[in-house]
Amino acid sequence: MTTPAEAAFVEPRYGDRSLGDVLPAVGRALGLGVPGPTGLELPPASAYVVLLVDGLGAQLLERHAHAAPYLASLLAGDHGQEPMTAGVPSTTATSLTSLGTALTPGTHGLVGFTARVPGSGELLNHLFWDRDVDPLEWQPHPTAFSTLRAAGASVTVVNQRAFDGTGLTVAAHRGATFVGADKVGERIAAAVHAARERPSLTYLYDADLDWTGHRWGVASSQWLMQLSMIDAEAEQLREALPSDVRLVVVADHGMVDSPAGSRVDVDDHAELSDGVSLLGGEARFRHLYCRRGAQDDVVAAWSAVLGERADVLSREDAVRRGWFGAVDAAVLPRLGDVVVACRGDLAVVSTTHFPYEHSLVGLHGSLTPAEMLIPVLVD
Question: Residues 6 or more apart from 329 whose CB is under 8 A from it?
Fold first, then answer.
């Protein structure tokens, strides 16, 4: 049974304590005078290393602190911080771009795992960038990495070699020197080398915990073991860095397990397809692109089927709630005419359109505390 606390949604804290506020806060801590309001304050230092652990929600870390003693120790350390929020939807492509640009999803435009390419009947997968879409046109704003570099910092991104030059990397992380590193030892060595520069920001990304959660679920022994490995990696990184370099560990979102009995397959409910020309987003946060004039009927039909298990909103209502922050005119048609945000452990799947989602145990994308609250750990 879902408790009231678990059912409640967490609204994004854009411009205060969201993932997009991390790099501006780092810039100020480096003494670069980077502007922008934020409730996130970091201690002064001449060099910062930011490690983003994909899928490490704040509630998950608190619940399994015994498996991550180093990271858990930072929760109550000298620079202990209350959790931040991801943006909406709470998904990797959106979050990595919010971090890298310091912009809201409604401004940077990567508004989900998949989103409609305006003027077409096609979806762009923001992780795999599977359409002929120029990332410089899709996300035209300067990144926070380029802003920090222009302000005089040495800026480095350490990531898997396969991500060099991809659409997501160009959209979210351009402006930094890219260093390819596939193994933990390579990543740590690259970060230590980059952090010798002053002032400097070095960003590292680790995807393994998220992959394990998707495959096995966050209640699995596999996920717990992977968390312990991440903890050891973070501690080893801290020990390898000079003492005057600050390490910040953050995440892009949390995760919930969605059992088979908590899933609604769109293909089993004909009324859910009426008026919908394209199904986008992901299982925990759907974008529904409607035929002309069908928006109200789609809201009514989906609300009737899902009831209190999801918030079914028109695009206009979701924008008014501030879910995506400020929304650029070019980004507006990428949002669903109707959006569906799941509560509890509900997932909205489609055997026909997204068959791979059936193999996933852990999911994310919605606004529950387990998905939205992310740690900010400073050492």
Answer: none
Burial bucket for residue 152 (CB in 10 Å: 0-12, 13-18, 19+): exposed
- Cα torsion through 333, 338, 343, 348, rounded to 10: -90
* Calpha distance 227→64 (Å, rounded): 9
Taking the CB of residue 2, how many other CB atoms lie within 10 A of it?
15
Contact 89, 365 (CB under 8 A): yes
Contact 338, 295 (CB under 8 A): yes
Mean pLDDT estimate for the chain: 96
Which amino acid is it at 141? H
How many Cβ atoms are within 10 Å of 335's Cβ, its own excluded?
Answer: 26
* Cβ count near 121 (within 10 Å): 9
First to last CA, the chain: 38
Of 78, 74, 94, residue with least CA distance to 86: 94
Starting at the earlier edge strand, list the strands of the sheet with 338-342. Answer: 276-282, 285-290, 338-342, 310-314
User: In the numeric block, which tokens belong to residue 164?
Assistant: 């060099």
* Cα 262 → chain centroid: 23
**What pTM value is reported for the model?**
0.96
Residue 266 has pLDDT above 50, yes or no: yes
Those residues whose C-beta lies under 8 Å from the C-beta of residue 126, and which sit 6 or more positions away, are: 93, 94, 97, 110, 112, 113, 114, 115, 167, 168
- DSSP β-bridge partners for residue 3: none
DSSP 295-331: HHHHHHHHHHHHGGGEEEEEHHHHHHTTTTSS--TTT
Write down all domains in the chain, each with its CATH number in brackets. 4-257+368-378 (3.40.720.10), 260-361 (3.30.1360.180)
**Model pLDDT, residue 81:** 82
Q: State yes or no: pLDDT of 112 exceeds 80.
A: yes
192-242 residue pLDDT tens: 999 999 999 999 999 999 999 999 999 999 999 999 999 999 999 999 999
| Of 203, 253, 190, residue with least CA distance to 59 | 253
* Whether residue 199 has a cis bond before it, omega within 30° of 0: yes
